[in-house]
Amino acid sequence: MSGLQPVRGTHDLFPPDMRRHRAVVDTARAVAERYGYGEVATPIFEFTEVFQRTLGDTSDIVTKEMYTFTDRGGEQITLRPEYTAGIARAFISGGLQQQLPLKVFCHGPMFRYERPQKGRLRQFHQIDIELLGVAQPQADIEVIALGWDILTALGLDDRCVLELNTLGDTASRAAYRKVLVEYFRAHLDQLSEDSRTRLERNPLRILDSKDTGDRRIVAGAPSFEQYLNPESAAFFAQVKAGLDALRIPYKLNPRLVRGLDYYCHTAFEFTTEALGAQGTVMGGGRYDGLIELMGGPPTPAIGWAAGIERLAMLIAEPPAPPRPIALVPMGADAELKAQALAQALRRAGHVVELGYGGNMKRRLQRANKVNARAAIILGEDELKRSAAAVRDLDSGDQQEIPLDRLGTHLAQFR
Ligand code: ATP
Ligand code: MG
Is the pLDDT of residue 1 over 80? Predict the structure, then answer.
C-alpha cells in the first residue's frame, strides 16, 4: 500500500484521456437527445439493499464485487456498481409513475471490486440508457437502435457486432429453467463450484459461465428456443423484424443471458474483437419485473449500459483543442495591461495563455510548448503607441497591431 499511488483498479483522467472520455459522453448524449431521452443523474451511493435486492444474491456483482461500507450513522451503503437499480429506485421514490414512458440517459462512475486488467477497472464509467413503461417490442428496437446509432456516431459500427437473444416471458423461462436444471444436475460433478451454487437459484447464468469446464457442459445444454411459447416467440420475431427494417446487423447468440429473474425477452450485447478479452462494450436487456420487485408498481422497462473506458480506447483521436494565443508582456506596466487584455480576448472567444514570469525568451519557449498559434508581445515602446507586436509562430512573421484592432487581427489564427 502506498498513499501516493492511485488505488488498484482506479485511474486518473488527464486532459488527453478526458478528451476521449468526453467525446464518448458528448456523442452519446447528443444522439440520445435526438431520441428524446433526457439526462438524469442519481447518487453515486445508495442503500446496499437497492443493489442486493435487485441484482440478486447470486450475481457476481453482489457476491464478489460490491464496495459496501457502514457509514458513521450505521447505514449499510454501497457505491453503485451499475445504474439501473438506482434509476428504478429513483423512479419509485420520486413518484414518477405519471411520467411514463420515461426515457433517460445518464453517465458516471461505477465501482466494482474486480481483478483489474486492461478494460476492467474498479472505478470505471458507463453511459446508460433506460426506457421505462413500454411493454411493446418497439421499445426493444428503439433502445438497440439508439445504442447502434451511438456506436455509429463514434465511428465504431464496423468494429462492433450486436449479439442478440431472448429470455422469453415468465412461463417460457420457467419451462426452460426446469429442463436446464435437470440437464446440469446430470453433469453436476463436472461443473465449477460457482456454477454448482447457481444451479438452484440462477441456472440460466451457468450458460454464460467463462469457466472452460462449464463451457463444455453448456455446449451440450438444451437450447431455449424449443421452450419459447408462441407469445414469446412472436415478441422476439417482432424485435428481429424491427432491427432488419433498420438494417441493424445482429448475430443470434442463444448463450447470451442476463441471469436475473426479472430479466425477460430481449437480451443483447455489442461486442468487439478489438479489445481482447474485455470485448463487451455495451450490454442490456428487458427487465419488466424489476420495479415491482423493488416495491413499485409493475412497470415494463428496458435499457443498456456501455463502458466508457472500453469505448474510449476504440474511438479515433478526438480533435485537438484550439491552439492558444500566448501573451508575452515585457515589464511591470505591460504585465498589468496583459491581465486585462487576456481577459478581454478570452471574453471575445479567444484561447489565451498568459505566461506567469521569466524573460521574453523563456516565455516564448513556453508559448511553443503549449503549441501557441501566435504570440502577442507587449513591449513598453509598443504600449506607448497603444499597440502590440503580433508574431505568427508558424511562419515567424511579426507585425505591429494597434490594441483596438487586436481582436480582428487574431481572427485569422482561429
Ligand atoms: P463483463 O462480462 O465484462 O464483466 P458485465 O456483464 O459485468 O461485463 P455489465 O454489468 O453489463 O457488464 O456492464 C455494462 C458494460 O460496462 C460492459 O459491457 C462493459 O463495457 C462495462 N464494464 C463492466 N464492468 C467493467 C469494469 N470493471 N471496467 C470497465 N468497464 C466495465
Ligand atoms: Mg462483470
Answer: no
Which ligand has the minimum distance to the alpha carbon of residue 313? 1
CB 331 within 8 A of CB 358: no
The predicted-structure confidence for 251-279, as pLDDT tens digits, reads as follows 999 889 875 667 899 999 999 999 888 89
> CA 387, CA 379: separation in Å to the nearest integer?
9
240's grid cell: 428481429
Count CA atoms closer than 13 A to 209's CA, side-chain side.
27
Q: What is the mean pLDDT of residues 219-228?
A: 90
Which ligand has its closest atom nearest to the C-alpha of 287?
1
Name the 3-class secondary structure at 201: helix
Are the CB atoms for 140 and 264 separated by under 8 Å? no
Atom of ligand 1 nearest to the CA of 61: 7
Quickly list H helices, 13-158.
Answer: 15-34, 48-55, 60, 84-93, 137-153
Q: What pLDDT is attached to residue 163?
A: 97
Cβ atoms 67, 113 nearer than 8 A: yes
Question: Of 160, 165, 154, which Cα lies nearest the Cα of 271?
Answer: 160
Q: What's the average model confidence in pLDDT over 143-147? A: 98
pLDDT band at residue 41 under the 50/70/90 scheme: very high
Query: Taking a C-beta distance cutoff of 8 angstroms, is the pair 29, 95 a contact?
Result: no
**How far is it, in rounded angstroms, from Cα 265 to Cα 231?**
10
For residue 374 the three cell numbers come to: 501566435
CA terminus-to-terminus distance, the chain: 47
| pLDDT tens-digit readout, 119-134 | 999 999 999 999 999 9
- Dump pLDDT digits (tens) for 155-178: 999 999 999 999 999 999 999 999
Q: How far is the CA of 279 from the centre of ligand 2 (A)?
A: 12
Strand partners for 325: 352, 374
- Write down the H helix ranges in 97-211: 137-153, 170-186, 193-201
Q: DSSP character for 81?
A: S
Q: All domains of the chain, ordered by start, with CATH?
A: 15-169+229-314 (3.30.930.10), 325-413 (3.40.50.800)
Query: Which tens digits make up the pLDDT trace of 49-103?
Result: 999 888 776 677 777 899 999 999 999 999 999 999 999 999 999 999 999 999 9
Residues lining ligand 1, Cβ inside 6 A: 82, 112, 114, 119-121, 124, 126, 278, 280-283, 305-307, 309-310
Contact between residue 313 and residue 18 where contact means Cβ atoms under 8 Å apart = no
CA distance 332 to 327: 14
Rounded distance between C-alpha atoms, residue 52 and residue 37, angstroms: 28
